[in-house]
Amino acid sequence: MYETIQSPIRFGRIELKNRIIFAPTTFGVSQEEYIEKIRKIAAGGCAMIIIGDVPVCKGGFGISLYTKKGFAFYQTLAETVHTYHCKICAQLHQSDSDWKAMVRCVLGVLLKRISMDDLRIKLQEAVSPYITNMPLKKVRKITKSFGTAAKLAQQAGFDMVQVHGDRMCGSFASAVYNHRQDAYGGTLKKRARFLLEAVSAVRKAIPEISIDVKLPIRMGQYGKAGFLQEDLSVILPLLERAGADSFHVTLANHDDLENTIPPANHVAFGQEGCFLPFCDAVKQYTKKPVCGVGGLTQPDFVEQQLKSGRIDCAAMSRQLLADSDWPKKVMAGEVNQIRHCVRCNRECLGGLQRHTGTHCIYEKGAKSV
Ligand SMILES: Cc1cc2nc3c(=O)[nH]c(=O)nc-3n(C[C@H](O)[C@H](O)[C@H](O)COP(=O)(O)O)c2cc1C
Ligand code: SF4
After folding, report:
1. Contact 46/137 with Cβ under 8 angstroms?
2. Is the distance from the beta carbon of residue 78 to the nearest atom of ligand 1 less than 6 Å?
3. 191 and 116 both lie in a single domain
4. Is 359 domain-assigned?
5. Do 167 and 60 share a domain, yes or no?
6. Does the reported pTM lie above 0.90?
7. Marked catalytic residue, from 167, 180, 191, 193
8. Which ligand lies nearest the alpha carbon of 262?
9. Nearest to 194 by CA among 155, 150, 146
10. Mean pLDDT, range 17-44, rounded to an integer
11. Structural domain boundaries, residue 112
12. Is residue 191 annotated as part of the catalytic site, yes or no?
């Protein structure tokens, strides 16, 4: 049973012991708590953990690879994960939030004239002018920093890097946000240039490292950043040429977070494996491994998707928050012991949004059990 889930795979340039990957997940908890949560997930038997939102620039949001303390933190994470013969991947990201727009809102937030929801809307509105008017020198500095950050990540012990194709890469790629008229805007190829340069910078800095690309796809009313499905025939060969070894495919960002992290009652993405049709589209144009993500919880379903070759690996965020031992239990044939994620978003996304940290209803002491 579940032979494919258990089978090793060459994913890009590394060997994975099975097909289950912990999807990038921001926790918003103390560093000690974070290390313990990641340790538990590694102990549960998955083959690789993707550490979400590792900033590529000095002074970016999140724990920095550039400071002694931040670097030591990532080293500890890598050592902890490796203890369980699990691989670790750094998701390299650059936020597209405009600091200046944020600073302008600070007083309003402090005086409670601007709610957190209003702040989110104002920051969204600031993305397009920020991307469109960014000076060329700054653009090149950021794309180059993907290489520098990748080198530091490798030195800290990461086995692989994932270039976060959303956030700033995705905003540059999108005609909705990017209205530049220079080499980084206009045609699809010009809009994709930011992401392509980021991937090339990593490849140039570390010729041998495995590079995964989180590939955001927008569809109709869903998502504002990233690429359209009709862009894929052009983009995938360019990404491969730039150095991409594998793809992590999902819905693009920049609308309601409940679209990219959909609850079970979501009108379009409520079903198991909700974003896999995007993987079908990607598979038409690449032979590189493709990792699916989004509402993957049921062992039978996951096995079937892997076995049919629809996806090469299955990434899970919420299911491994609900039960980190999902891989171990599946491999031991104890599927009836699994605590299934019910896709309620109450304590994971909900916790993150309430600034109380990413948790799960199954955790002891969770408010909404
Ligand atoms: C609490 C939480 C935090 C997340 N943080 C990140 C992140 O830092 N980077 C990212 O690319 N995706 C992030 N995601 C999205 C997940 O990687 C994944 O794509 C999404 O949750 C759908 O998969 P799932 O149904 O297995 O949860 C986050 C998801 C959750 C629930
Ligand atoms: S809180 Fe709900 S959606 Fe989030 S991981 Fe737990 S069961 Fe899944």
Report:
1. no
2. no
3. no
4. no
5. yes
6. yes
7. 167
8. 1
9. 146
10. 97
11. 96-129
12. no
103 and 215 both lie in a single domain: no
Question: Do 230 and 110 have their domain in common?
Answer: no
Task: Give the span between the Cα atoms of 364 and 354, in whole angstroms.
Answer: 18
- Beta-carbon neighbour count of residue 304 at 10 Å? 13
320 plus 250 within the same structural domain? yes
Ligand sitting nearest the alpha carbon of 349: 1
Q: Are 197 and 100 contained in the same domain?
A: no
User: Ligand 1, atom 11: nearest CA belongs to which residue?
Assistant: 24
Q: Which residues does a 6 A CB cutoff place in the pocket of ligand 2?
A: 318, 321-322, 341-348, 360-361
Q: Which of 317, 324, 342, 345, when mutated, tests ligand 1's pocket best, judged by the most ligand atoms within 8 Å of its CB?
A: 317
CA 48 to ligand 1 center in whole angstroms? 15
Both structure tokens of 96: 């597209």
Query: How close is the Cα of 25 to the center of ligand 1, in Å?
Result: 5
| Tens-digit pLDDT profile for residues 168-227 | 999 999 999 999 999 999 999 999 999 999 999 999 999 999 999 999 999 988 988 999
> pLDDT tens across 43-57, in order?
999 999 999 999 999
Task: Kindly report the CATH number assigned to the domain that includes residue 323.
Answer: 3.20.20.70
Asked if residue 9 and residue 56 are part of one domain, the reply reads yes
| The total number of structural domains that make up the chain | 2
